[in-house]
Amino acid sequence: MMFMKQCLPKPVPGELLKKSAVLKPLFAKSNADKNWFLYSTAKLSTSVAVNSSLQPVLMNFSAYEEKKDPGGNARVLLIMHGMMGSKSNWNSLSKVLNAKTSFKVIAVDARNHGDSPHSPEHTYEHLVEDIRHLMGNLGIKKASFIGHSMGGRAMMKAALKYPELVEKLVVVDISPIGTSPQLMTMGKYFNAMKSIRLQPNIPLSVARKNADQQLSSTISDKPLRDFLIMNLIEAEKGKYTWKINLDALANNFMTKIATFPKINSTFEGPTLFIGGTKSDYLNPEEEPEIRKIFPAAQFAYVQDAGHLVHVEKPAEFLSLTIQFLLQSH
Q: In this structure, what CATH number is given to the domain that contains residue 297?
């Protein structure tokens, strides 16, 4: 498939051998996606036993499987995005991961994001139950996990609570120990997004341009503004809204998401932490403490990458991740 070739990474031999190395389509939108087997949550049952104290939601997802496995024995890779992201952010990467590993790749929209249900509750405990709930509905007994930022912490928490569900774990630019000072600015972003005022009956491209201009007075980082504005959608003809549940995210962020929950267990399985050298979300100084929780942890840092490692340096990210997933442990 020609559309995949531009995403294929160049190998980075031996990088993963070092303990610290520097280094959309649930709804097919074009004929280029016609060879992929796609699935919808609308076909799933809801007869899965769940933690009665935490009400899960059934997350929307995209499944990438170039050749459908008739026996249903394909290894599975679950991916969860970060705060204010969506499964569509992982579209191209998911296709490459499936093609290069033969894993069935499932990228989810976390609750209050993308096409998944909204809820006033947004904690790592809820995100973990959502993951378990989806795996139960899909009949997945075990999978490898990838999570970025908020998604990375949700996947870590899931591995610690339900280690029997996790084959391998990849955590992208986030730590279970420290908290980046940048996370403390999220309230500013939420308030800026809530303050956006747009004229009705204008094209989406114009609405997003106007939103960008208004956000620029608070958020100077243009790539970050572009990322946030991807959440602006046309709710009904001529009227615009945020696809994410801004109120729930803002209400829960500082107390439930900004810091990792208390830990009283370990995950012994293969684990890879991938950070960016320009990011402070994952610090090499924290590696000894992280290994107390994840004893098998390996660490790799992608040169000149910031917090969005997989977006800024996709070839390097894919090379590290594919090598790790295919490695015998």
A: 3.40.50.1820
116 counts as catalytic? no
**pTM, whole model, 2 decimals?**
0.85
Which secondary-structure segment (H or E) carries 5?
A: helix 2-5
| Annotated catalytic residue 144 | no
Q: Tell me whether residue 46 is in a domain.
A: no
Nearest to 242, CA basis, from 124, 121, 112: 112
Q: Which of 115, 212, 247, 280 is catalytic?
A: 247
Q: Rounded distance, CA 279 to CA 256, Å?
A: 22
- Same domain? 190 vs 314: no
Q: What are phi and psi of 62, to 5 degrees?
A: -120, 135
Task: Select which of 149, 175, 180, 319 is catalytic.
Answer: 149
Segments forming the whole domain that contains residue 90: 61-178+260-326
* 81 has catalytic annotation: no
Q: Residues 220-273: pLDDT tens digits?
A: 989 889 999 999 999 888 899 999 999 999 999 999 999 999 989 999 999 999
pLDDT tens-digit map of 307-321: 999 999 999 999 999
| Pair (158, 233) in one structural domain | no
Q: Which of 175, 307, 310, 319 is catalytic?
A: 307
Given 249, 283, 303, the domain boundary residue is 249
